[in-house]
Specification:
Largest sheet: 6 strands, mixed
Oligomer: single chain
CATH superfamily of the largest domain: Glycoside hydrolase, family 3, N-terminal domain
Radius of gyration: 27 Å
Shape: globular
Family: Belongs to the glycosyl hydrolase 3 family.
Organism: Streptomyces sp. R28
Bound molecules: beta-D-glucopyranose
GO biological process, one term: carbohydrate metabolic process
Protein name: Glycoside hydrolase family 3 protein
Pfam family, one: Fn3-like
CATH class of the largest domain: Alpha Beta
Length: 815
């Protein structure tokens, strides 16, 4: 299924076999175990260089996790899916491969193709959609793009890692039918259409077996049925048992140096617990990957000529504006030329351009909505007010700080220094300042000055675990041991900062700042890491005063543009959301501004759905997702009408109480997927509920008339041709969606499924055809009695639609 072998594949296989035969058991076992956070060991005896992996998915971080080493930051995966454009996803992939090559990375730990099962899923922003077909199609475009640049991908997290609560241990119980029709489907589509060189198995358990040991799903389904021939890497720290993992088809245990592979694996073979042939299978998969990316001597890489260079800044901006979903527009957009604009919202100035967790990268620059609109509008047309600040949490120490890191040994001698542009230290493995080793390092001091922008009580805090001493302007505010807030090995990276000092400071007057951390390298953590952050928050203003100020600004402008956002505490990794409300006073702010100015436009800067209780009271609502580093420039493009917003919802947006599936908290370690195949729009339709905005919905700046639909061919190859006319006044792009609906009511099947889509462009008055091929799967279900796909005979409506609930034309066929 995953494609036949070419001559070049055969030649690479021969090199792989020869290399494998030249390795002894210890070397083979060593190759399967990470040597540090991101790499595998080199094996010079066979001419193998060290393989480097890096997150993914919106940028390539590289092996150093620091603002010193910036990366292009694209819009969130939800945004990429909202473009409904696999070609654009492919171009994103080509750029990411270029970034990976620039940073010496061979394999990208992306894309994330888990599904939006519950809107509360913490990493929702990092996955594409609630629909497996849309997810698989966008994912395939992305993988094809990355790999066309000679860089591998690891499609993750295989499988059913759709929420974060107790992610290391939760047992998701999922019917075989739901697995096949929903959760496995995107992986299957990608294996078939993009031939990925890697897969990452998830932390969680599925039906009683942890995914890093899942013989059935990995060896039988993924490799056996689908023909996947890439490598399988564990999620970070997910591999727990030597025998279970190797027999369950896990090739690489990350991170190292201490894992269940390496020395314990060689020993297990010597003890007769594990067959050496299993080790050989895994080594073969890793060597094949190495050959493909060009780090195995004698093997020609898959890509010998790299694609043309991509302008990352331009592409980030293009994807952002193509992803913005205009869900409501009562004539407020595009903005009137020469009108005045009151821009409001903390995120309009300090934009939230990406989600938290392992997907975080450090862009070299960020264009906020304030920057973007200032550049686009005539002088004097724009005012700015904070309105409401949802960031109750302290942020990294970047604005006004000048800090460096001083490393000392146990006697207090300085042994090295490092830079830290934002008060954040994340030194993993051997990534230490020059002259510093884990054996000699005792303390790291962040030291330097802070010059306040405003007078008043400034809050300073610490993110991290262990002993800390915080001194500001000569006063020591904290000298104690900070404990983790919950049990997750990545808590030092993704946990919340704790406030530890609140001195009164004066604007413009610098003070000395020092935060010292006593480093520790606990035995039970396989990787030596130094990770902590100095955090800070400006003096807080009275929330009512901020709203009043914004209302005043709105009253004096032709249009009020309010940017509302979630925070890092709402959308990140390692935890799920508790509700879908906008944090802080943002809902109050919108209501107050809308009451003062009927021309209020709301920009929702969140990676995943939030509730919009005021949506009928405002003139326009635009969802901007996490728009990446160029988000503000793209926003100006769309608000001014230089470009139309191109996005369509990849996921249903509705309130939490109405959401048919929301459970993310396991009980007694188990999370039953009781809803079976009914998630997302499948569930909303089954329950007969109306969401705020349906799947597939999104407005542009022109109108479309659906003129005709023609269906040709039999179930093996059905082609749907939809003629649409641009009946508006400007050029535009339409996403023509095709849904397949069984005409006989059947409560066991979704009322309709997305079976295909195509983007078309046309000038005013022009007619164009969208041609969509329907996959066979649209007419099949997984039969649990025969354990196979069966086509369901009968009559179907083929519906051409603007969204799942705005269906314009239909034709009936019998299969
Ligand atoms: C995440 C993965 C990521 C890995 C390495 C894990 O915690 O679940 O998505 O690739 O860390 O950063």
């Amino acid at each position: 299924m995953a494609g036949t072998r070419t001559q070049a594949d055969e030649a690479r296989e021969a090199v792989v076999e020869a290399a494998l035969a030249a390795l002894d058991l210890d070397a083979k076992a060593r190759l399967l175990s990470g040597q540090d956070m991101w790499t595998l060991p080199a094996l010079p005896e066979i001419g193998l260089r060290s393989l480097v992996m890096s997150d993914g998915p919106i940028g390539v971080r590289g092996v150093r996790w620091t603002a010193d080493d910036p990366s292009v930051a694209l819009p969130s995966p939800t945004a990429l899916a909202a473009t409904w454009d696999p070609g654009l996803a492919r171009r994103a992939g080509v750029l990411l491969a270029q970034e990976a090559r620039r940073k010496g990375v061979h394999v990208l730990l992306a894309p994330t193709v888990n599904l939006h099962r519950s809107p509360l899923g913490g990493r929702h922003f990092e996955a594409y959609s609630e629909d497996p077909y849309l997810t698989g199609t966008i994912g395939a475009g992305y993988v094809n793009g990355v790999q066309s640049g000679g860089v591998g991908t690891t499609v993750k997290h295989f499988v059913a890692n759709d929420a974060e609560t107790d992610r290391f241990t939760v047992n998701n119980t999922v019917s075989e039918r739901a697995l096949r029709e929903l959760y496995l489907a995107p992986f299957e589509i990608i294996v078939e259409n993009a031939h990925p060189w890697g897969i990452m198995t998830a932390y969680n358990t599925v039906n009683g077996t942890t995914m890093s040991e899942h013989h059935y799903l990995v060896n039988e389904v993924l490799r056996g049925e689908w023909g996947f021939d890439g490598y399988n890497v564990s999620d970070w720290l997910a591999a727990r048992s030597t025998k279970g993992a190797i027999e369950g088809g896990l090739d690489v245990a990350m991170p190292g140096p201490r894992t269940v592979y390496g020395e314990p694996l060689a020993q297990a073979v010597r003890d007769g617990d594990v067959a050496e042939a299993k080790v050989d299978d895994a080594v073969r998969n890793v060597l094949r990957l190495a050959a493909r990316v060009g780090i195995l001597q004698g093997a020609e890489p898959v890509v010998t000529e790299h694609p043309e260079a991509v302008d990352g800044i331009a592409l980030a901006r293009e994807i952002a504006r193509r992803s913005f979903v205009l869900v409501r527009n009562e004539g407020a957009l595009p903005l009137r030329p020469n009108g005045t604009v009151a821009l409001i919202g903390a995120a309009a100035r300090d934009a939230r351009v990406l989600g938290g967790g392992s997907a975080t990268v450090f862009p070299a620059r960020i264009v906020s909505p304030l920057d973007g609109l200032t550049a686009a509008l005539p002088e004097g047309a724009l005012t700015y007010a904070v309105g409401a600040d949802p960031n109750t949490e302290l942020a990294v120490a970047d604005k006004g700080f000048e800090l460096r890191a001083v490393c000392r040994d146990a006697e207090g001698n300085v042994i090295g220094t490092g830079s830290t542009p934002n008060g954040q230290i994340q030194w993993m493995g051997s990534d230490l300042p020059e002259g510093v080793t884990h054996d000699t390092l005792h303390t790291v001091e962040l030291t330097g000055t802070f010059t306040p922008r405003e007078s008043g009580p400034h809050t300073f805090g610490i993110k991290g675990v262990g002993a800390f001493k915080l001194t500001i302007d000569g006063t020591t505010y904290y000298d104690d041991f900070q404990r983790p807030e919950r049990d997750d090995p990545f808590i030092t990276f993704f946990g919340a900062p704790v406030s530890r000092a609140q001195p009164e400071l004066t604007a413009g007057e610098p003070v000395e700042v020092s935060l010292t951390h006593v480093v520790e390298f606990p035995e039970d953590i396989p990787l030596k890491a130094v990770a902590f952050t100095l955090t800070h928050q400006e003096p807080r203003r009275d929330p009512d005063e901020l709203i009043a100020e914004a209302v005043e600004a709105a009253r004096n402008a032709d249009t009020a543009v309010v940017v509302v956002a979630t925070t890092e505490r709402v959308e990140s990794e390692g935890f799920d959301r508790k509700d879908l409300t906008l944090p802080g006073r943002q809902d109050d702010l919108i209501r107050a501004v809308a009451a003062a100015n009927p021309n209020t436009v709301v920009i929702v800067n969140s990676g995943s759905p939030v509730e919009l209780p005021w949506r009928e009271d405002v003139a326009a609502v635009l969802l901007s997702w996490f728009p990446g580093q160029e988000g503000g420039a793209a926003l100006a493009d769309v608000l001014t009408g230089a470009h139309e917003p191109g996005g369509r919802l990849p996921t249903t947006w509705g309130s939490l109480t109405d959401a048919p599936v929301s459970q993310v908290v396991p009980s007694n370690g188990e999370l039953p997927y009781r809803e079976g195949v009914f998630i997302g729009y499948r569930a909303w339709e089954k329950e007969g509920r109306t969401p705020s905005y349906p799947f597939g919905h999104g407005l542009g700046y022109t109108d479309w008339t659906y003129e005709s639909v023609k269906v040709e061919g039999a179930v093996e190859g059905i082609t749907v041709t939809v003629r649409v006319r641009n009946s508006g006044e400007r050029a535009g792009r339409e996403v023509v969606q095709v849904y397949v609906a069984p005409t006989e009511p059947d409560t066991d099947r979704p009322a309709r499924l997305l079976a295909g889509f195509a983007g078309v462009e046309a000038g005013p008055g022009e007619t164009v055809e969208a041609v969509v091929e329907l996959p066979r799967r649209a007419f099949e279900t997984w039969d649990e009695t025969t354990n196979s796909w069966t086509s369901v005979k009968g009559s179907y409506e083929i519906q051409a639609a603007r969204s799942i609930s705005d269906r314009r034309l239909a034709a009936t066929i019998n299969v």
